[in-house]
Amino acid sequence: MNSEASSPTAVIVGLGYVGLTLGVALAQRGCRVIGLEKREDVVDLTNAGKPHFSETGLDRAMSKVVENGNFIACTALDPALEAGYYVITVGTPLIAGSTKPRIDMIEQASRQVADHMRDGASVTLRSTVKLGTARDVVRPILAESGKSFHLAMCPERTLEGAALKELAELPQIVSGETAEAADKAAALFGLLTPAVVRVSDLETAEMIKLIDNTSRDVRFAFANEVARACDAVGIDAGEVIRSGKFEYPRTDVALPGLVGGPCLEKDPHILMASLAETGTALEITRACRLVNERQPEETVNAIVARLVERGKGPFRVAIAGMAFKGRPETDDLRGSMSLKVIDALQARDEIGSIVTYDGVVAREDIDALGLDIEVADDLVSACDGAHALIIANNHPEYSDLDIDSCVDAMNDGGFIYDYWAHLVKRPPATLEGRYFVVGNNRGRF
C-alpha cells in the first residue's frame, strides 16, 4: 500500500478552533499533522500538548498525539517537508463595521500553500466562505505557482464543545474541482468517519454550510418574533410554544433567546453577500438576521423599564454567562450576545455598573475585552448588591441556580431575567414577580 495513503502527511493552515480539533482528530487516526499558525503563543502551547481554548476531551487527546509525534505546530513550514495534503481552516470574520466577509486570511493561507506544496498536492478549503471562494480566490493563487494540484471543498460542521465526538460521527461533505480531487479529499476525510457525502461541485459544498447555519438563524428568529408578539398582548410565549407542539408533529417552534456565536452572527451575511452579486435579495434571511440582531437592545429596554418600575437608579446589573453558549460548554467569546447585551446596558443612563460571571471563561479573557465591567468569582457574589441578574447563556449551571440565594443577595426588588428559560418548570410560587423570561415580561407562571 502507498505510504501516503496509509499514513498521510497533512498540513493544517490555521490552528483556531476548526484547525486544531481537525488536526488532533486526524493525528489520532495515524496522520502526521503539521499545524501552521502565525501566533507564536498558540504554537508553543500546541507543541506542549495544551489547547488554547476549552473543548471537551481535547486536552487528553492532544497531549497524546503531540507526545507520540503525530502532531507538531510551527510558524513557518520546513521547505524540505513533503506533504500530500493541505487543509485551509483560517477564520472568515466580517469586515469590522460591515456585513461583508473578509477574504484576506484565505488569500494569505492560499499563498502559503502555493509556496510550499509539491506537484500533485491535495488542497482542501474547510473555512466557511462566500460562494465561489474556492474556485475564484484559492484556485488562481495556487495556479500562479505553476504546480499541479487537486482542489477540494469540505466545510466544517462541528459543534463547539463536542468537536472530537462529531468529527467521528458527522458525515463529511466533500467536493472536488475534478473527480480525482474529490477522491483525494475523500480519502483524507474518510479517515474521520465512514460517512462521506460527495456533492457535485465546489459551490454546492460551500452553499451547504451557509444554508445549514442560516436555516437555524431563521428558525430562532421566528421564535423571537413569537416572543415579541406574546409580550405585546401579555401572553407567555413559552407556554404557547411548548403547549402547541406537545405531541403535535407538524409544529416545531424553537424557544426564544439570544442568537449569536461565531457562525450564526456572520454566515447569513456571507450567504446574502454571495447572492447580492447575482442581483438576488434574500428577504427572509435579511429580516430574520435583523430580528436576532436587535433583540439585545429590545430586551434590555424591557429590563430597564422593569428596573425603573421598582426603584430609582443608577442600577447595578449582574450578567451570568459570557461565552456565546454554555451547552456544550465553551470559553469562546466570539459572537457572544452577552457583549451586545452589555453594550445595550451601557448605552442607558439608568445603568450605573455591570458585574459579570462565567465559570468557564477565564477572568483574564474577560478583562482583555477592555470593557468597563467587574468580574465575580461566583454567581451569588455577582448578585451581591445587584438590582437584576441577567442569565445570558445556556450553561447547565444556571439550571441549578438557587433563586433564593441570588435574590436575597440583591437589592430589594431584585429580579432575574433569563434569556434561556432555565427555571420555568419550577413551582410558580418560587418564580412569580422575581423571574422573567423572553416572551413573558409579566413574570406570570
Written description of the protein model:
- GO terms for molecular function: NAD binding; oxidoreductase activity, acting on the CH-CH group of donors, NAD or NADP as acceptor; oxidoreductase activity, acting on the CH-OH group of donors, NAD or NADP as acceptor.
- InterPro entries: 6-PGluconate_DH-like_C_sf, NAD(P)-bd_dom_sf, UDP-Glc/GDP-Man, UDP-Glc/GDP-Man_DH_C, UDP-Glc/GDP-Man_DH_C_sf, UDP-Glc/GDP-Man_DH_dimer, UDP-Glc/GDP-Man_DH_N, UDP_ManNAc/GlcNAc_DH.
- This protein is an alpha/beta fold and 445 residues long.
- It folds into two domains: 3-200, NAD(P)-binding Rossmann-like Domain (Rossmann fold), CATH 3.40.50.720; 213-437, NAD(P)-binding Rossmann-like Domain (Rossmann fold, 3-Layer(aba) Sandwich).
- Helix content is 43%, strand content 14%.
- It has helices spanning 3-6, 17-28, 40-47, 58-67, 104-116, 133-143, 163-169, 179-189, 202-233, 237-245, 261-264, 267-276, 283-310, 337-346, 363-367, 379-383, 403-409, 428-431, and strands at residues 9-13, 32-36, 71-74, 85-88, 121-125, 149-153, 172-176, 196-198, 315-320, 351-357, 374-375, 388-391, 415-418, 435-437.
- It has an eight-stranded mixed β-sheet with strand order 3-2-1-4-5-6-7-8, with helices on both faces.
- The radius of gyration is 24 Å and the shape is globular.
- The chain starts with a helix and ends in an 8-residue tail after the last strand.
